Amino acid sequence: MDDVSFEERYKSYTEGIGREIVEGTADFKKLEEYALQLGDIRNTSGRLERLKTLLNQYLLEVSVPSASRS
Fold this sequence. Notes:
This protein is mainly α. It is about 60% helix and about 0% strand.
């Protein structure tokens, strides 16, 4: 199963700047200030999402011959 619970994965939409974006109250100035004060960001994507990404990358590589990709 996933390493992160549903609530944990989507909590950024229910608090802080994420909530303000969803509610439509964050303007570009506020978003700029928020982005500039951020340090390093750690992606908390779930295991299932990583596996889907890997599978999609593989399928794209297999379905598109290398000669037609260039």
